[in-house]
Specification:
With 196 residues, this protein is of the alpha+beta class. It contains nine helices and four strands, in the order βααβααβαααβαα. Helix content is 41%, strand content 15%. It comes from Ceraceosorus guamensis.
Length: 196
């Protein structure tokens, strides 16, 4: 996706952030996160304002994530503006639930995580359960949305649905982050480690 200067997501140098951004990643070139299998990928996970309004729920989800095999490599806590939510959910513009999505995402703080691991898109979405929280509470009550979702639009979470979506969304949230470069770097570090 082409990023233009009119993006409502500020770059690090262009505008202050409403919340302190916390970015975590592997800085040790001699020790990558793990030896990535060919199926290793990045995905965006968002804990939405409806979940982030209650810190014990956030802590419980992060604890569960710790044991999932998905590694958070970057994180950012922020209060979205309406313009940011509109840009993020632009593919849903014109649908009956669009305004509720935008209002929900701009209603309070959220936590975004870049997750890395084998089949991370499928794995994270599997943990979430179906988008429609009302149905998920019956069909998959142990899923994250089954336990924490309130309504179909206030379902507590977001997960990228494809590698292309993940790349676009991670670039928006993490200030133009070049995920292709990061993945290539991880692959190089892993192959270097294997040669030792």
């Amino acid at each position: 996706m082409h990023h233009c200067s009119s993006s409502p997501f500020p770059s690090i140098s262009s505008a202050p952030r409403p919340f302190k951004s916390t970015t975590t990643h592997s800085n040790n070139p001699a020790r990558p996160l793990h030896t990535p299998p060919t199926s290793a990928e990045l995905t965006l996970a968002i804990l939405k304002p409806s979940l982030c309004s209650y810190q014990p729920d956030v802590s419980a989800v992060l604890k569960e994530l710790k044991f999932s095999g998905l590694n958070p490599v970057r994180s950012r806590r922020m209060q979205w503006t309406r313009a940011q939510a509109e840009e993020f959910y632009q593919e849903h513009r014109g649908r009956f639930y669009y305004d509720r999505l935008v209002l929900g995402m701009s209603s309070g703080p959220s936590l975004s995580l870049a997750l890395y691991g084998p089949n991370s898109i499928k794995a994270w979405r599997g943990m979430l359960g179906a988008t429609k929280a009302c149905r998920t509470k019956w069909e998959a009550p142990q899923s994250l949305r089954g336990r924490y979702g309130i309504t179909d639009t206030r379902n507590g979470f977001h997960g990228s649905d494809s590698p292309e979506s993940a790349k676009r969304e991670l670039g928006l949230i993490f200030d133009g982050w070049d995920t292709d470069w990061w993945m290539a770097r991880e692959a190089r570090l892993s192959s270097d480690q294997g040669a030792i």
